[in-house]
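Priority: low. Protein: FecCD family ABC transporter permease. Input follows.
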Amino acid sequence: MNSSSTSQNNSLKLHMPKHFKTVLFLCIVLLGVCVLASLTLGSRLVRWNELMDGLFYSNVDSYGANIVRKRISRTVFSLFCGAALGVSGALMQSVTRNPIADPSILGVNTGASLFVVFGIAFLGISTAGQYIWLALVGAALTAVFVFAVGSMGRGGATPIKLVLAGAAITAALSSLVTAIMIPRAYVMDQFRFWQVGSVGSGNWSDIGTFVPFLAIGIIIAFITAPALNALALGDDVATGLGVRTGVLRLIAALAAVLLCGATTALAGPIGFIGLLATHVIRLILGSDLRFVIPMSAISGAIILTISDVLGRLIGSPGELEVGVVTAFIGAPILIILAIKSKVRSL
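Result:
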């Protein structure tokens, strides 16, 4: 019994990426730094004593302590949204075997946006709970449509065809969003700030609405990770190993849509987080999803939170929405990746 358990432990150690513990430690440190920066930096800098008052002394009613309390919910919301987008990106890249797959690139965010603006204009929706269900339907239908279009023709769903299909469908859906908004000023007023992508309005009510979707999506991601590793070897090999590839793709894709759709509903269509977080982790740790998924969650939370802080500092005394910051950072990186990697399959 002891020898069997020892051999299993050795096997696990052999499969652990070489620098995993170091990367995990650095990411946790960075995450702590990002949380501290999010609580203290902005249009109004918070001093250390105000930070302590806001965190630990609810009876203190100073201006600085109240700012800290408001920023706590914003920070938690940012961390959760970043984690959801990071895991969603990892799942999408694995399901499509496309190293630059991302909710924003494949048009999923835009599909969610279209259904939300449709609901605002014609159904009179106004609450986070209503946004989420419409966004999930829009994200799911768009994901299916993009994959169907990208699968047409010779060679099936190749990485470049999926990206092109996503870009074309994104352009078409964006035009529909504009067509619905322009003649309806009240829709434009309600929709325009959400459309940019922001975590600034995140509150405890939104977090409570979001947590079940986040938990379900991440649990499914962890459960499917070993089978997705087999899928990366090719459908024939995965089938030979007992993996039902069609069912696996469906379940993993649903988890990805659940994560990015819920995030888009509450924070708006924030782009490039899934691409950046997952791609960086794959470069450092390799492609084993048992490690890529949790690390993508952490790195996504770091990237989104630090982008939110940068937006506050750059736009001070106001703020620059986080969706603008991530697009500004992500677009050049996407171009570099597309040029250097030649969009190879995973």
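The chain has a mean pLDDT of 83. Residues 30-103+196-341 form a domain with the ABC transporter involved in vitamin B12 uptake, BtuC fold (CATH 1.10.3470.10).
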